[in-house]
UniProtKB/TrEMBL annotation, chain A:
Mg(2+) binds at E43, C62, M397, H449. This is NAD-reducing hydrogenase HoxS subunit beta. Its cofactor is Ni(2+); Fe cation. One of its GO terms (molecular function) is ferredoxin hydrogenase activity. Belongs to the [NiFe]/[NiFeSe] hydrogenase large subunit family. Pfam families: NiFeSe_Hases (PF00374). Its EC number is 1.12.1.2. Ni(2+) binds at C65, C443. It comes from the Bacteria. It comes from Kolteria novifilia. Keywords: Homeobox, Iron, Magnesium, Metal-binding, Nickel, Oxidoreductase.
TrEMBL record, chain B:
Belongs to the complex I 75 kDa subunit family. Residues 147-178, 191-220 form the 4Fe-4S ferredoxin-type domain. GO terms for molecular function: 2 iron, 2 sulfur cluster binding; 4 iron, 4 sulfur cluster binding; hydrogen dehydrogenase (NADP+) activity; metal ion binding; NADH dehydrogenase (ubiquinone) activity. It comes from Kolteria novifilia. Its cofactor is [4Fe-4S] cluster; [2Fe-2S] cluster. Residues 10-88 form the 2Fe-2S ferredoxin-type domain. NCBIfam families: PRK07569.1. This is NADP-reducing hydrogenase subunit HndC.
């Protein structure tokens, strides 16, 4: 008897999704499908709106990473204005982007993923959530809350509010940094760094307990895509887009983001609203590549800051130059948090950081512009076309979680093949199927530009489509 | 229209909300109320421009009249007994604001005037938390053809301040109202793109007096809105200019 399992909703992720697992007659996994089930259509609703509104409209795609969309959108607008924005504005934008990455990584690691790591993949789903962590490991939970606050507080100090700040605009930022704010941010750096370091030390001690998960959580060689500085350092704001293979060999370097379409194409499948970007020269679906913290560490030669580089050396010593398992996104996130805190301190110490010239003004000088930045989850790309009056005619966005769609689908199949046994179905098996998605930290609301409660479902079906079993809310995700 | 310029020293008394107040001949109920710090909400009214009485937010009750009357365009008279607030008036005003929100596409979160919008302020003051009538979601265009300014019909409440300031203060009479009823729209000249107008002097007064985000300077973003508030302080100047011409 051929059966099908559906996980619906998938929990502790950003956005809505469903997983279908098809079992063969022996009860073994035949195939899996990852369905992202919502659609919002931002690319359509911005048509006709003025260019200057784009950053604040596009930031509404997401409440977790509005800053990332602000960056990519403002940079696409900078490109349309054809201006070079003031150097201080670039630095201030970078600080906000680092703060965004810190808070989002803290959210994924502590609030969404740590229940699996601290309480166990097979723990009671009623306890396996952030509240369970607070009850059993209050210090870790507090670290998570404080680290996220560290990032969010910087965003608020710079932009006036934590979610959807209107401070990043085409041409730069609206307000310079005041000496008082600079001191306030610097005053918090020590505590932020202390939390980041004790978290990574703890994680390095437990990562070896997850050998089986590491072996099957989207564990395969693939291409990786990320930004680097021209010297090959880790980079999140600008720089060449670099593709490397599973041995860190450079496959392609895209120096002008406007040429992205020669390297990336998007495929569409009828079982999901999330498109499948692929590396164009290798075709679909062979052109699978990954983005995000793990990919950035694979693409970069080095971080470029002392503590993060020390951690990166240990990471590479233990896992190799290009780790193949997506489980290691967790570790990469923790290294990036350290890097971001170091960079915030470095940039704040630069001589011109308090300069008051932070905005270049210009009219639209091009009809087409592309903006890129590294969101917490990976490379984010906004591509706009405008008319002669500066009104939007067309937009395309490629979101980090979209880049990872092929890898997530393949990873789900791999982990289901390893853990799901149709004859002896247990909740912990299905939790691992969800946990592989959590490792990628997808933001599905962003990727389809969709809105909704965070949720995901698993279903078990016979070959004729009859529903055999279904795991659905209220599950651990409801703690969110 | 010329109530302030009528040369009479005569004053008289009327009652507003149960209190005796002194008024000058030719003053509207709204002006008398403002002189005595009695708040009446307004939207289309702007000191220095001809009262128009279009938005109906300043409706008041006058004893002896079954109808509610607009305070901005009703002259105060001796022994008049005016009530500015009652459950009936509040219901009318709240409904008017809700209808304004439902009529076009007011998306506060991304509007350039967010936090600096008179419609938004009115809604907050009146406790409008929901709109109880269906939204119309009309498909409206944005006119960005002018070099410096933008007209977004989605955010327009048809207060006609721009029409009046353009004719009465600037003397250009570029702005007008086209269409009828709910299809009324602000137009430039004979309904041409703003950028092709022969009469517009690009003075920007219409942008300064617009209560919402319908008329804006190009290139301004969500974050620039506070700066526009300062320009509303030119209103006493508008009055002086206008009266100096007579």
């Amino acid at each position: 008897m051929v059966r099908e399992i559906t996980i619906d909703p998938v929990t502790r992720i950003e956005g809505h999704a469903r997983i279908t697992i098809q079992l063969d007659e022996a009860g073994k996994v035949a195939d899996t499908l990852f369905h992202v089930t919502q659609f919002r259509g931002f690319e359509k609703l911005i048509e006709g709106r003025p260019l200057s509104e784009m950053p604040s409209i596009m930031a509404r795609i997401c409440g977790i990473c509005p800053v990332s969309h602000l960056m990519a959108s403002a940079k696409a607008c900078d490109d349309l204005l054809a201006v070079e924005i003031p150097a201080t504005a670039v630095k201030l934008r970078k600080i906000m982007n680092f703060a965004q990455i810190i808070q989002s990584h803290a959210l994924n690691f502590f609030h969404l993923s740590s229940p699996d790591l601290l309480l166990g993949m097979d723990a009671d789903p009623a306890e396996r959530n952030i509240f369970g962590v607070i009850r059993k490991f209050p210090d870790r939970a507090k670290d998570g809350v404080m680290l996220r606050k560290f990032g969010q507080q910087i965003i608020e100090w710079l932009g006036g509010k934590r979610v959807h700040p209107a401070w990043v605009v085409p041409g730069g930022v609206t307000e310079p940094l005041s000496p008082e704010r600079r001191e306030q941010i610097l005053g918090n750096v020590t505590e932020g760094m202390a939390i980041a370091r004790r978290t990574i030390d703890w994680y390095k001690g437990i990562v070896d307990n997850y050998t089986e998960e590491i072996a099957s959580f989207a564990n395969f060689p693939s291409l990786h895509l990320g930004l680097t500085t021209p010297e090959g350092n880790l980079e999140h704001y600008d720089g060449p887009m670099t593709f490397v293979d599973e041995q860190a060999r450079n496959i392609a370097t895209v120096t002008n983001p406007r040429h992205y379409a020669s390297y990336i194409d998007e495929a569409v499948e009828d079982f999901t609203y999330l498109k499948f970007p692929f590396y164009k020269p290798m075709g679909y679906p062979n052109g699978l590549y990954r983005v995000g913290p793990l990919s950035r560490l694979c693409v970069a030669e080095r971080c470029g800051t002392p503590l993060a580089d020390m951690e990166l050396r240990e990471f590479r010593q233990r896992l190799g130059r290009v780790p193949s398992s997506s489980f290691h996104y967790h570790w990469a996130r923790l290294i990036e948090i350290i890097y971001c805190i170091e960079m915030i301190r470095t940039i704040l110490d630069e001589a011109d950081i308090l300069d008051t010239f932070v905005r270049a003004r210009a009219r639209p000088n091009r009809f087409e512009g592309v903006g890129i930045s590294e969101a917490p989850r990976g490379l984010l790309l906004h591509h706009y076309k405008i008319d002669e009056h500066g009104q939007m005619r067309w937009a395309n966005m490629i979101i980090a979680s979209g880049h990872n769609n092929l890898a997530m689908n393949r990873g789900i199949k791999q982990v289901a093949e390893r853990f799901v046994d149709g004859d002896h179905l247990q909740e912990g098996m299905l939790n691992r199927v969800e946990a592989v998605i959590r490792a990628f930290d997808p933001c599905l609301s962003c990727s389809t530009h969709a809105i909704g409660q965070m949720a995901m479902v698993i279903e078990l079906r016979q070959s004729d489509g009859t529903l055999v079993d279904k795991l659905t809310g209220p599950r651990d995700g409801d703690a969110r | 229209m010329t109530h302030k310029s009528i040369p009479t020293p005569d004053s008289f008394t009327l009652r507003i909300d149960g209190t005796d107040v002194v008024a000058q001949v030719g003053q509207s109920i709204l002006e008398v109320a403002q002189d005595h710090n009695i708040g009446i909400p307004t939207l289309c009214y702007l000191e220095g421009l001809t009262p128009w009485g279009g938005c109906r937010l300043c409706l008041v009750e006058i004893k002896g009249s079954g109808r509610l009357l607009p305070a901005c365009s009703t002259l105060a008279t001796e022994d008049m007994d005016v009530t500015t607030t009652s459950p009936r008036i509040e219901r009318y005003r709240r409904t008017i604001v809700e209808l304004l929100f439902s009529e076009r596409n007011h998306i506060c979160a991304v509007c350039v005037s967010n936090g600096n919008c008179e419609l938004q302020t009115l809604a907050q003051e009146m406790g409008v938390t929901h709109v109880h009538v269906p939204y119309r979601y009309p498909t409206l265009l944005v006119d960005s053809s002018h070099d410096g300014f933008r007209l977004d019909h989605n955010r327009c409440v048809m207060c006609t301040r721009c029409v009046r300031v353009c004719e009465e203060i600037e003397g250009a009479a570029t702005k007008g109202v086209g269409g009828r009823g709910i299809d009324s729209m602000i137009i430039n000249d004979l309904n041409e793109p703003w950028g092709e107008s022969d009469t517009c002097t690009s003075c920007g007064k219409c942008v300064s007096v617009c209560p919402t985000g319908a008329l804006t300077e190009k290139g301004t973003t969500f974050a620039d809105m506070a700066k526009r508030r300062e320009r509303r302080e030119l209103l006493p100047y508008l009055t002086q200019t206008r009266e100096g011409r007579r």
